[in-house]
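Recall the central idea of this unit: under ordinary conditions, the amino acid sequence of a chain determines the structure it adopts. In this exercise we apply that idea directly, starting from the sequence alone.
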Amino acid sequence: MSANDAPRAQQPSAAYDSAFLKACRREPVPHTPVWFMRQAGRSLPEYRKVREGIPMLESCMRPDLVTEITLQPVRRHGVDAAIYFSDIVVPLKAIGIDLDIKPGVGPVVERPIRTREDLAQLRDLTPEDVSYVTEAIGLLTRELGATPLIGFAGAPFTLASYLVEGGPSRTYENAKAMMYGDPGLWADLLDRLADITAAFLRVQIEAGASAVQLFDSWAGALAPVDYRRSVLPASAKVFEAVAGYGVPRIHFGVGTGELLGLMGEAGADVVGVDWRVPMDEAARRVGPGKALQGNLDPTVLFAPTEAVEAKTREVLDSAKDLEGHVFNLGHGVMPSTDPDALTRLVEHVHTLTAR
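Accordingly, the structure predicted from this sequence is:
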């Protein structure tokens, strides 16, 4: 399965008329839809219970476990969309990259990619490599019914940063050294990762995902000129590869206020906004023709309910004139967040925005 294969448009699903998908399509909604990045995860006691003693990557490869974890926040919070439980390095593991997710550290790559010869590690991804994803999404869509399921993948730059650095980084010195010092190798690396990412998203869409999100978690480390020249082409290739399916495509990064317009140019239908830029200003930077997603600061949830509600109103007021708005946090749910605060937040947004 390559990024150049012509995708087949999906038939409308039971979730087609959901508030979430309507907002992504910039259509009128009964209320502002809500979901949270990392809503399925460590903030939930039921998640910690089912994951007990099971390594992260193993849990991502067990369809029964993926199904249960993905459904947990839908049951508890009443969110308007589920997000498929996985990790951005799953497709890399699936093609044989020697990596592991170490608790308290994150993904660690045994043999970082630093030379052209190292690119040989990156073979094409096939549906058979991730058959557990197809199985899990089949189970999920039957359970979810009219609730949309969001598939996702890591963007080429963020995957490249892990592969070149060998693990998490705050400075990305090795990745940036390759980007500046060997732009040909860098371009080939990102192009290959774009094909792998597109193939992974295709599997999820063809299995029944109603939308997909591309996480470029670390793109905020880049200057706009470097993003345009060295990153945007690969992200655009991913979005173009799945355009024919007709499902909404979301693009999200952290610290990307200066890149919002460029991220919109890459081809997404919805641009995610972190908490640093008000939604109305984000809309100005992105330009017309896109829905926006965001953008409550995740740390606000540690404040008293009255403060959470006040900050939520600020976000909604800032977003009131948007063409389409999906309410979310400006980044993922933090592990020590009180789950009840999330449930109250969903109810609050639904109540305030009921039409």
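The beta strands are 82-83, 99-102, 106-109, 149-154, 211-216, 249-253, 270-272, 291-296, 325-329.
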